[in-house]
């Protein structure tokens, strides 16, 4: 809906469940006259209608249930991703792919291997969302407009996420100067638990509105042909001393996907935590046959 309303291009919704995508499409179409917005949507259960898409967003997969980690979904969602990626290789050989399926970093890596696309063309939406959550919690805590906060998060979109208090700015000043270190640590912890908190409260399904905003933002950057700095899960090949793993970091995003990976300055402790997360992802990848 966000992508369609922002006139970013023709939108095709695909789902294997017969009627689901069509029903969602009809519902969104019925809002056009009220919104005075003549956007273009199609719903289908035929994956061939994705042919020649410029940008593909993969959200397919089982959602988390209360008590589950994103990593618990690894095996089942890998199987779902396999058939999708095989089709995308043939139908959309030039597409930029945005992965949303959890566990996000591992699914981003799997998508690269399963499609054979250049790693720059496949990115995972994760820490853009986490940074927005971090900024929101800071805003609520300090009573500061969220627009005055520049939140920085790197690492995995999961238990190893790293909201960086020292690099996060509140009205241009580091968060560590704006609040006591214990309060900063608490905000970091709450950010890491935010997704699980939402899943627990909903009881069924997971977060919806904020992830959709993060997805639409990435689509807009790529579709516009401009460049912007965003946090995404990217394939590292030596950056931070890490190779052959997808993990969240700041990147320059443009019409070709990931145009440049940016390494932020980390303390020794932060670097160790980042490397630990990367190694954990690498181990899980080894145990996940593609």
Question: Can you give keywords for this protein?
Answer:
290 residues, alpha/beta, Rossmann fold, L-2-Hydroxyisocaproate Dehydrogenase, Chain A, domain 2
What can you tell me about this protein's structure?
The protein is α/β, with parallel strands linked by helices and 290 residues long. The chain has two domains: 2-124, Rossmann fold, CATH 3.40.50.720; 127-286, L-2-Hydroxyisocaproate Dehydrogenase, Chain A, domain 2. Helix content is 43%, strand content 20%. It has helices spanning 2-5, 20-29, 32-35, 74-91, 104-115, 127-142, 175-178, 181-202, 209-224, 268-286; strands spanning 11-14, 41-44, 55-58, 96-99, 122-125, 149-150, 153-155, 161-163, 169-170, 173-174, 228-237, 243-254, 257-261. The strands form four sheets. A six-stranded mixed sheet has the order 3-4-5-11-12-13, with helices on both faces. Helix 4 (74-91) packs parallel to helix 5, helix 6 packs across helix 8 (181-202) and helix 6 (127-142) crosses helix 9. The longest helix is centred in the middle third of the chain and has 22 residues, at 181-202. The radius of gyration is 19 Å and the shape is globular. The protein starts with a helix and ends with a helix. The relative contact order is 0.14.
